[in-house]
Structures are given as structure tokens and as C-alpha cells.
Please model this.
Amino acid sequence: MKVLLAGGAGYIGSHTAIEIAKLGHEIVIADDFSNSKPEAVNRIRTIIGADFPFYEIDIADKEKLRALFAAEKPEAVIHFAGYKAVGESVRKPVAYYRNNLDTTLTLLEVMKEYGCRNLIFSSSATVYGAPDEVPIKETAAVGRCTNPYGWTKYMIEVILKDVAVADPDISVVLLRYFNPVGAHESGLIGEDPQGIPNNLMPYISQVAIGKLACLSVFGNDYPTKDGTGVRDYIHVVDLARGHACAIDYAAAHKGVEVFNLGTSVGYSVLDMVNAFETANGVKVPYKIAPRREGDIAECFADATKSRELLGWKAEKTLVDMCRDSWNWQSKNPNGYDA
Ligand code: UD1
Model:
């Protein structure tokens, strides 16, 4: 199938491009580099060993998106095009609502115009907010988000469900990601956060390489086994493979379906620090700091539905996640910048 990856030069999009190209799908990437680098596209080409069409466009630019659809005629779209920094979303809510909703609405309009009926959306476990119980099933309550970024994911899910009701021919797959970490095993592509990282794994990597002095562990008084926050870390290549399964699912079904993409296993912050040190033979100095506002104690998936309906499950181990994160970080200490 010919698949457009909207926002496909970013962390998850770049890994997904590789996994779906490997399975024989034709790929087209569109990205405005607002949170990614042209070098990522070069490296995707290197890994795939073939060229593909790339469009430097803002997905919310309707005329440019129309031109892309007219030229490429994609049969499916994977929609990664959105801002994703939680803290920034609190400071710039209008920019987040504008960008994340506009890209989605424009995509929907142009897809309809060009008869493209399959849409996979990058949602997040953030839509569950503080869950009533773990592991979290897809049927758990949603919409208790604690920041504008999370609300954009929730709102887009609502929009896409409405679209699926109104248009019986469309197929929508909502993928709720847990905590993506790791990198492609080549070390050529990986997560390249702007400035000081907010998320745990890139922070650990930058402490290990000496760019940052010490990790602050945000709270050790949660009701968890060692008091630190527990999350479902998933290797980005496993996550990427989940998109390939979602493409097949969308092609074979109509309507809307939601899937958790997680491992179903929770690790604490200290588990991650210890695993990273052991896997890579490096030191990660840390100190205990106050809780981070908006954080929850525990979050991990029940991924049964993804296994049963998508035929997908996470295969990589915590050691793989730590080793591949470090491989990327140590080969590219400044990310994609030389
Ligand atoms: C965060 C977002 C979530 C988003 C996800 C994307 C918040 C509140 N949530 O999830 O909406 O979908 O990223 O990947 O920001 N930690 C530390 N020290 C650090 C960084 C993190 O102790 O310097 C801890 C956190 O308290 C948490 C765990 O590590 O227990 C994971 O944090 P993080 O990687 O930021 O992910 P989430 O907060 O789960």
C-alpha cells in the first residue's frame, strides 16, 4: 500500500517509515521540520537503501497537502504531525490546540477530497490521565488529561470517532502509545530532543554521556515497589511495527478501533537507571527530587487487544531498549547536528 507518513521525520515516524518500507509498503514522508531534522530523512534513506518522495510542508497547509495528494495518491495516512512537549503545551496552549487540531482537520478534508479512506493516528496513554486501575485496558475512562498536549490527543480521538460515524467507508485506527524509548539498532536514527530533555530515557542518556550532570528522580514516595514512578517503556521499533499491523487492520475493517501499544510490563525510574547502567557499563548519577506536577504513580498497558486483533506484541527487552538508546546517544552525541 502507498502510505503517507505525516510528520514522518520525527522520532516515531522515522522508525515507522523503516518498518513499513521493509514490509513492502511504498512510503511518502511529509514534515515541516518544526521538531525534526532533514538529516533524519537522509538516514531513513540510508537504512532502507532506496529513495522515496519527501515533502517539506506543514500538514495544515491545505494547498500544499492537496498538491501532495494529487501527485502521490496515498491509500493510507499515518498521522504523527503534532507538537508533543507537555511543559511547553502548558505555556503555549493556543499553539498546541491550533497546530495539533489544524493538522488533523486539514488531513481529514484532503483525504476525503482524494478518496483516501485509511487513517492511523498517533494517540497516547496520556488520554487515560490517572487511571483507576493498572494494567490499563482500552475500555478504561479517558479524558482526564492534565495538560493541553494531552487534551489535543483526547480531542482528536473524539473528532476521529465522529468522522467514522458520519462516514461508513472510512477506517480509523487510534494507537495509544505508552512510553517509547530506544532507537534503531543501526544507531543512525533515534530521539533527538530539543534542549534539555523532559522524558526519562533521553535524560538518562545525556547524563551517561556527561552532557547533563545528574538525573533528578521525581519523587520516591509513590505507592510503588521502590517509591519511584512506574511506566510501560516500549522499544520504538516494536512501536513502529505496531503501525504496520494497524495498516493491515485498517485495510480490512471499517469504522474506528483503538489499541494500546505497550509491553504490559511496568518498570520504575530506578529500574531504568539500574538497567541502563548494567546494559551499557556506564554510570548514571542521580538524586531524589520532589514529585513533578501532573505525574502519576503507575501506568502500564493491558495489550491483550493488540495481540488478539492486530496480531502484534512487543518483543524487545529492557536490555535492548537501554543498549539501543545508548548506541544512538554515543554515536550521535549532538543528535542529528554534526
Ligand atoms: C510524558 C508525558 C506524557 C507523554 C509522554 C511522551 C508528562 C506528565 N507526561 O509521560 O503525556 O505522552 O511523556 O513520551 O510529562 N522522570 C524522572 N526524572 C526525569 C524525567 C522523568 O524521574 O528527569 C520520571 C517521571 O516522574 C516518570 C517517569 O520518569 O515517573 C517517566 O517520565 P517521562 O519519560 O517524562 O514520561 P511520562 O511522564 O510517563
